[in-house]
Amino acid sequence: METNDIKKPIFENEMLYILKEDSSIPWVKIFPKKECKELSDCDKSIQDILINTMIVAQKAMIDFYNPTKINIAMFGNYLPKLHIHVMARFKNDSHYPEPMWGRKQRESSLNLPSFNDFIQILQEKLK
Amino acid sequence: METNDIKKPIFENEMLYILKEDSSIPWVKIFPKKECKELSDCDKSIQDILINTMIVAQKAMIDFYNPTKINIAMFGNYLPKLHIHVMARFKNDSHYPEPMWGRKQRESSLNLPSFNDFIQILQEKLK
Fold first, then answer.
1. What is this structure's pTM?
2. Structural domains in chain B?
3. Of A48, B8, B51, B92, which is most buried with the most CB atoms under 10 A?
């Protein structure tokens, strides 16, 4: 059964937690526990851990989903609390090649492997 | 006089170069010279230099422009060649709080200090 509780972290440690974004593509968001507005406001040690976690999530998505491209974003315009979006994009997804915030390109129903299996792999890699 | 040659790097060293994006907001793009598709494909040393340069550009924008928020993105869907977008966003810019790839919110004419002065400061910080 796929988890639909997008408020419950799919991973957490002392420094950060990761949420699933409710989307048709594989999409996770990495938040530092010590809130900051911009990445440059965080202590260097937190910056390094966030970026390293982003790279691990990106590699795990590439290995598991073989996506056309990974998309990364740090916006936080609506809620100015730093978080890093990591998205697996596919040439037949709803918005490709536009960003997920751009104009929808098509109706799309991706046939992807289980996100819960991906979570387990990601958790293992982040241990 | 403001530079309008957006193909000429505003900064470069042995590892990377920075281009200006032609936009109504302050927006730069950081490219590694050794091309890669994803950040996770780059050598760790290149990753570190790219992220460090992104942080320096972000801090320089915050100091110089006092923006509402910094936005960062790595997409590369149209041209799968890694580059990092660093954007200074303002609450009265054309798209805020939507990403610059989202729906335009308003006509906007920002009264910002000279981008050429910003370039000089950025160059100095990246030396």
1. 0.95
2. 11-126 (3.30.428.10)
3. B51
